[in-house]
Amino acid sequence: MLRRSARDFLAKECSPKVVRRLMEGDDAYDPALWKKVADLGWTALGIPEQYGGVGTFLDLIVVLEEAGRSLLPGPFFATMGMAVPALIEAGTEAQKKDALAAIAAGDARATLAVTEPSGRWDAAGITVTAKQAGGGWQLDGVKLFVPDAEHADYIVVAARTRGEGEDGISLFLVKGRPKGMTVSPLKTLDMTRRWAEVRFDGVELGADALMGPAGAGWPRLKRAMEWATAALCAEMVGGAQKVLETSTDYAKTRQQFGKPIGIYQAVSHKLADMLVLSESSRSATYYAAWAVEADAPDRSMAASMAKAYVSDAYRKIAGDGIQVHGGIGFTWEHDMHLYFKRAKSSEVTLGDATYHRELVAEALDL
User: Are 53 and 47 in contact (CB under 8 A)?
Assistant: First the structure.
C-alpha cells in the first residue's frame, strides 16, 4: 500500500515536467512539494516515535525507491537518508528532541557534511578542524559536495578535534547560518540534486553543538553512513527499474524493418541483462536495509556489498537504456539522460564501487 500510494503521488506531483522545471531553477527546491511530502508523513518515516516519528527504516526504503524512480528533486534524501541517521546514531537527547522532532513535523530540512576537496569518504579525508574556544567550539575549513545544503536548517558536520585517521573525529550539529559559515551552490552533472561548498571561517558554536563525546565520533558516523548507503541504494534501484520499464516499452513499440525492435536479440538480450542487474540490485539493497535496521553482525559488509553492486548496475542500466532508445535517447528532450546523470552522481556519493569493495575485503580480513 505504501509503495502504491507513493508511486501515485509522485506520478501526479513529481512528473518529468516538474523535475525539469525544478532542475532548471535556482535551487531545485519547491516548498509546496516539500509540504505535501511532509503531510503524507514521509518526513517522519524511520524516526523513533518519541521524537514524532512513525514506521521503520524499511518503510523509508520503500518510499526512497519510489523517489528514485521519479528523480524527486529537493532535500528529501539529504534529510531522511543522511542527516536523520547521523542524528539517531550520534545526537544527544536534547539535539534529537529539537532536530528530529522538527524534521518529523516537516518544519526543518537537514544534511550531512563529510567530504572535503579530497573527495574521500573515509576518516583520513576529514581535515576541517574543531577546537575548544570560549566554552564552546570553533570550526575552520571547507566541506565540499554537501547535498542540498542551501535549504538545510541543520547540518551535521564531521570535524577533527585531534589526532589523525579515525581517532579524533567529532560530530557537530550546526543550526541555521552562524557567523563565518558560507554556503555556495555548485554546478554539477546532476542538477536534480544540488550540492554545495560549505566554508567555515572561525565559526563559533556552543558546547551543546557537540554530538556525543569529543574525538569519538567516527564509529557513530560510520554507522550512520551505513544507513545512508542502504537508503541511497534504494533510490538507485528505483531509478534503474524506471529505466528498464521505459526501455522495454520502447522496444515493444519502436518499429524497424516492419517489426518491433524488441524481437531482435541485440535488443532483447540487453534488456534481459538490465532485468538481471535490476533484480539483483533490489535483493542486495533490501538485505542491506534489513541488516542495518536489525543491527546484524554483517551490517557493514552488507551495506558495502550493496553499494558496490548497485553503483555499477545503475550506471550500466542507465547507459544501456540510452542505447536501446537509439538516437532519441541521446536528446535533451528525452528523460534517459536525467537518469544517467543521477546514476553517475549516486555512483560516487558515499563512496564508489572500488571504495566499497575495499571495505568488503577488509571485512573478510583479506
Answer: yes
* Stretch 332-336: mean pLDDT: 92
> Residue 111: enclosing H or E segment and its boundaries?
strand 110-113
First to last CA, the chain: 43
- 265-293 and 57-70 are packed helices; what angle lies between their axes, rounded to 10 degrees? 150
Coil, helix or strand for 54?
A: strand
* 336: nearest Cα among 274, 291, 277: 274
- Residue 366 pLDDT: 67
Measured distance CA(6)–CA(263) in Å, rounded: 33
140 bridge partner residues: 129, 201
Does 177 score more than 80 pLDDT? yes
Q: Which residue has the cell 539529504?
A: 78
> Do the Cβ atoms of 97 and 51 come closer than 8 Å?
yes
Find out whether 347 and 28 touch, Cβ atoms under 8 Å: no
Q: Give 268's contacts (C-beta < 8 A, 6+ positions apart).
A: 251, 262
Is the model's pTM score more than 0.70? yes
Sequence letter at residue 76: F
- Position 293, amino acid: E
Name 173's bridge partners: 156
3-state secondary structure 130-189: EEEECCEEEEEEEEEEEECHHHCCEEEEEEECCCCCCCCEEEEEEECCCCCEEEEEECCC
pLDDT band for 257, please (50, 70, 90 cuts). confident
Inter-residue contact 93 to 123 (CB < 8 Å): no
pLDDT, tens digit (0-9, with 9 covering 90-100), for 4-47: 999 999 999 999 999 999 999 888 899 999 999 999 999 999 99
- The two most distant CA atoms of the chain are separated, in Å, by 78
Mention every residue, 6+ apart, whose C-beta is less than 8 A from residue 253. 260
Please report, as a single letter, which amino acid is at residue 302: A
CB 149 within 8 A of CB 111: yes
For the range 92-95, what are the long-range contacts, defined as Cβ-Cβ under 8 Å and sequence gap of 24 or more? 92/208, 92/211, 92/212, 94/208, 95/173, 95/208, 95/211
